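User: Can you fold this complex?
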Amino acid sequence: MRFRTQDIMPPPIVKLIDAARRYTSSPGFLNLGQGLPGHVPPERALVALRDRLSHPATHVYSPDEGMLELREELAIYLRRTSKIDVNPQDELVITAGANNAFAGAMMALLHQGQKVVMPTPYYFNSVMAVEMLGGQVVEVAGLKGFQPDPATIESAMDDDTCAVFLITPNNPTGAVYERNTVDRIVDVCIERDIPLISDETYASMIFDDATHYSPRSRRDAIDHVITLGSFSKDFGMSGWRIGYVIGPEEFIQEYLKVQDTITICAPTAGQLLALEVLKSGLDFIEDELRRLGLLRELAYLRASEIDALELERTKGTFYMFPHVKGCEDSKRLVLDILQSTEMLVLPGSIFGASGEGHIRLSFGPLTPEAVDEAFDRLAGFFKEN
Amino acid sequence: MRFRTQDIMPPPIVKLIDAARRYTSSPGFLNLGQGLPGHVPPERALVALRDRLSHPATHVYSPDEGMLELREELAIYLRRTSKIDVNPQDELVITAGANNAFAGAMMALLHQGQKVVMPTPYYFNSVMAVEMLGGQVVEVAGLKGFQPDPATIESAMDDDTCAVFLITPNNPTGAVYERNTVDRIVDVCIERDIPLISDETYASMIFDDATHYSPRSRRDAIDHVITLGSFSKDFGMSGWRIGYVIGPEEFIQEYLKVQDTITICAPTAGQLLALEVLKSGLDFIEDELRRLGLLRELAYLRASEIDALELERTKGTFYMFPHVKGCEDSKRLVLDILQSTEMLVLPGSIFGASGEGHIRLSFGPLTPEAVDEAFDRLAGFFKEN
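Assistant: Here's the predicted assembly.
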């Protein structure tokens, strides 16, 4: 067989977990690799879902675009949290996660040979999607604090540019993109008539004095912005594979062709769970954010004590993306850390050229004790190496 | 925005359900459109799943390739039902349905401009997937009884052929492909070194004296065969989006790149449900097959009384694919049937050129009374038209 995918990199987390297999069964293994929060949906929503399992409709396809009741509740939620107006009938499709939505958006938009401009560090699955579809990613280095640079984004655009892709709050850096910066990028996209794809999976996970700014909240941008989101992180339901894509009606019509072809519909029971969570109150997210906020403080404090780590304090997500002094091969470094400390972190290089020399630490599901333990091990490792 | 998908047809069932919206709310509406069985997973598996909802692991990602325990149980199931040997470690990935698996396989295999040979009538989503990825479908007319024709399949192959695609038992015709016929196609694929993709979603839904023949059961074919399957139909869990793809290890390695990019993993709770069903006994499928068998008898009897319908009796699935005498525009006919009888059936033309003049009737979830009522209405319609 000759594979279209032969030049695409293997899924990096899968490969690392394979490499870590020898260690994962150890009682002391610490996983700071995969990006997960620490909470699950609240019991009251699970009670409702258990009841729904007795209804035959729970077990059959939903409409391709998702259950109307969920789309309506989600539109209300997004108006409140992201200050965006979405018509749940024509501008919103429930997807099997935000990754599924990005790949689907690319299938609807990307013509063979076209380019997608992405500030780096970026999210590796996005690059895999673009390359699988015969496109090319144009990496654009960011500014201080991992903010994207509107000027270099603009100068990276040409007639073959099919989209600009932003993730805010950002994976892997935790950067919350500033309103002025995003606005300047939106201006360029409108001027050049190029879609801006905005992944806002971590929109609720914001700390300190930061606020989330969604490009779609600008009324003049609605025809040029595609918004991606997910229930995986803030609702604690990554295993349910439920996300969404929002865009102008003409885009959604095309997206539905892709949805029917690659997914048919998002899983019905997961949609029902998301709906039950939306209807039953979101105070559990506040609790989780308080917990994550304390972990962040602890993690930044402990990281600041390690000389080898150079760290900019960002304001979102449960990730840290420190630079490791003198590191030129983060994959090698991560394997060394794994071997010496039985702890999995991700190499920065999988997030693009400017990620090299960094490591990503994901502390979402850890206890404060485990965070302390992780930094004890890192401190020990860097002392010896 | 300029769409890559602009020349792809809109999802036909979605469009028809839109057209039917005026009628679906009528108490008399009968849906013989979408392909669904009539059963749901057994209560004992749902009880176990309700319990699993209390475990945090139910709510987070599974490994990309799916839960090992499910892959192991599925391999045992497939050895018994389809007489195929599958190494659950390296040759099997759990997908978000068989559609997801077909699109994923195409993403791994299809190079821009390549062709996929499909006997017609075919399943429309397969064509949408191939065309979305920049490929082309070569339709090959079938033989009597909707059997594929090895000779014309062979003559349709050339240097640009990336795969041959078969569905057995077939959607939309219900044809169970005969062993000799499949073997001749397998021979050609091995000889020409071209992968054969075999969609066996309906493998358990076989009636009369027929038996399912899975190409992978031939030991010499294992390197050339990719097998797709689904829990949607026989396990009554279409809403859970759980299917699978089986192939040689080199293919599975490439498939996992696609999986990570478009799906990450199949929904965890759905995987757990499939596992619970496999572990708790499959007598409920036998019950469903008995029910469907009786419905089939009734449907064939009633269809034979309608002069306008020309019908070959096939041996699988819950579909009938009658030819309608004199029909040259099945889309028009289906809208007329909908308007006159408040009943949705699918136009044969969406299943390829040789489907024109046919309609697809799906009787899976109906009661015997509803089947009788459906044919009363059809008989009345054809009497008047």
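Residues 283-304 of chain B form the longest helix (22 residues). Chain B touches chain A through 77 residues (CB under 8 Å).
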